[in-house]
Structure formats: C-alpha cells, structure tokens
C-alpha cells in the first residue's frame, strides 16, 4: 500500500511520537508533543494551494485546539456609499496588526469545552483576534471589524468554520491545515493547545514559512524593491508587445 505524500512525510515522526507517548502514564513524557509535516511552503508559478499535516500526541485524554496565524499587517476598511448613482469610498477606519491569515481546528465544538471568558483570554476565534482597534465609537468599530472579517473570509484567508482535529486512539491526533492559492508570504505561527476541564494544561508553538521561489519570486522581489524600474519595464513591454502585434496584423 502506498502512502499519500503528507502521510509518507509524517510517518517517521508519527512513529517517534508513539514512542514518546508510550511512557506518558509514568509522568516522564511531555503533556503535549506536536509537529508539522512541512515547515516550508514554496510558492511557485503554478501554485494552487496546499495542505499541511499537523500531528501530535498527548499524555492522556483532553481537548486539542489548533490555530494558525499569518504575518501581521495594517488594513484600512472603507465604507462605500452611492453618490449621484456612483459608488465612492467615504469613511475609513484602519486596524493595526491584523493577521493576514487565520485558521482554527479542534476535536469538538469550542462551546463544549471552552467558556466565552476563556476564548477571550486565549484570543480564540475571529471575534477575539488580537489587533489594534481604531479610535472610533464601539458601535462603529464593531461594524467595520465585522466587515473586515467578512472580506478576509471571502478571500479565503480567514476560517469560515472550525476545522476538525481527529484522534487516533486516546493519545495521537492529526488535522489538515489548508492554505489557499492567494495565501500571503511570510512567517506563520501554528499554536497547539491542550485543554482539560476548560483550562490550558500545555501549549506548543511551531513556525511555518511561506515563501515565493523561482522566476516568480525574482519578479516579485524586483517589483517591490525597484518599483520605478519595474513600472518602466512594464510600460516598455506593453508598448513593444503592441508594436509587434501591429506588425503581425498589418501583414495578414
């Protein structure tokens, strides 16, 4: 039987986790051990999204929560209004340190093992994301914040539902983390929390890097470091392409 690519990559580490989880009853093992099947996602020209396997082991029963946060950025949210039949941008609020990507998964619904106070304390869920709020009224801030979350969800960058963490037996667990084709590059943090009786008993954070490689990466880097040259080259290329097209169609 052939293993799938994520499973094949994780097989040696799963075996190690099983060995480490074995002595848990003697109190020698860590309460929580987790890792990723891949710590680097390479974005090439044909990148169409990918899945990364998160797997681990606990020293006994408990609830597992996995969150993925992308690099922080500042985002301005604008309200559009129709003026004389034309939609224009009017009021805008800026939110700081907004994660570019947010995903979440657990072995059962959050409300079954976490109360709202714990979710707020641990910054769990879209409504509790850590970000710098603008200087505006609470009602207005809430309205724009909900719009921000909705926009990111429509882009596939914020989770629309809690993913599934599956237990293999009483100690081993796994979940698939999905990253869409438009996922931003940068450093990500994958956090795994072990809960018992509604309290965190262990936590582990694992880094993940998403980076462009190949000719696409070189063009991206040149466009951001030499914007004037990139713009001039794009204009020249468009003019050259138009001229060549003119010569071709003139002879037809």
Give a topology summary.
Layout: H1 5-21, E1 32-36, E2 40-43, E3 50-58, E4 63-69, E5 72-83, E6 86-99, E7 102-106, H2 116-121, H3 138-154, E8 163-164, E9 166-168, E10 172-179, E11 186-196, E12 199-212, H4 215-225, H5 227-251
Parallel strand pairs: 2-12, 7-8
Antiparallel strand pairs: 1-3, 3-10, 4-7, 4-11, 5-6, 9-10, 11-12
Helix pairs in contact: 4-5
Task: For the structure shown, list the relevant keywords.
12 strands; four-stranded antiparallel β-sheet; Immunoglobulin-like; 252 residues; flat; six-stranded mixed β-sheet; 30% helix; 5 helices; alpha+beta
What would you say this structure looks like, in words?
The protein has 5 helices and 12 strands. It is α+β, with helices and mostly antiparallel strands and 252 residues long. It folds into 2 domains: 5-213, Sandwich (Immunoglobulin-like), CATH 2.60.40.1930; 214-252. A 6-stranded mixed beta sheet has the order 2-12-11-4-7-8. A 4-stranded antiparallel beta sheet has the order 1-3-10-9, with helices on one face. It starts with a helix and ends with a helix.
Q: What are the low-pLDDT stretches, counting only 5+ consecutive residues below 50?
A: none
What percentage of the residues does DSSP assign to strands (E)? 35-45%
Distance between the termini: 58 Å
The biggest sheet amounts to:
6 strands, mixed
Q: Any idea how many domains?
A: 2
CATH class of the largest domain: Mainly Beta
Report the count of strand segments: 12
Q: Within the largest sheet, what's the order of strands?
A: 2-12-11-4-7-8
Average pLDDT figure: 82
Report the principal-axis shape: flat
Q: Judging by the overall fold, what is the CATH architecture of the largest domain?
A: Sandwich
Helix count, DSSP H or I runs of 4 or more residues: 5
CATH topology of the largest domain: Immunoglobulin-like
Question: Helix content range of the residues, please?
Answer: 25-40%
Radius of gyration: 23 Å
Helix-strand string: HEEEEEEEHHEEEEEHH
Query: What's the CATH H-level homologous superfamily of the largest domain?
Result: Macroglobulin (MG2) domain
Content-based structural category:
alpha+beta
């Amino acid at each position: 039987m052939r293993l799938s690519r994520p499973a094949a990559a994780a097989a040696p580490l799963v075996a190690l986790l099983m060995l480490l989880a074995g002595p848990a009853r003697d109190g020698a093992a860590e309460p929580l051990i987790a890792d990723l099947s891949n710590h680097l996602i390479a974005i090439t020209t044909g990148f169409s999204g990918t899945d990364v396997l998160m797997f681990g082991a606990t020293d006994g029963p408990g609830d597992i929560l996995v969150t993925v946060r992308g690099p922080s950025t500042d985002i301005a949210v604008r309200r559009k209004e129709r003026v004389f039949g034309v939609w224009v941008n009017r009021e805008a609020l800026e939110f700081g340190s907004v994660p570019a990507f947010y995903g979440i998964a657990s072995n059962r619904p959050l409300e079954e093992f976490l109360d709202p106070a714990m979710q707020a304390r641990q910054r769990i869920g879209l409504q509790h994301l850590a970000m710098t709020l603008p200087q505006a009224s609470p009602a207005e801030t809430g309205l724009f914040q909900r719009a921000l979350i909705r926009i990111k969800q429509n882009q596939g960058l914020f989770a629309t539902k809690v993913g599934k963490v599956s237990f293999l037996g009483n100690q081993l667990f796994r979940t698939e983390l999905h990253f869409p084709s438009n996922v931003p590059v940068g450093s990500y943090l994958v956090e795994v929390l072990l809960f018992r009786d509604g309290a965190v008993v262990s936590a582990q954070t694992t880094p993940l890097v998403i980076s462009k490689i190949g000719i696409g990466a070189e063009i991206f880097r040149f466009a951001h470091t030499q914007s004037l040259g990139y713009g001039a080259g794009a204009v020249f290329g468009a003019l050259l392409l138009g001229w060549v097209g003119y010569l071709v169609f003139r002879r037809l």
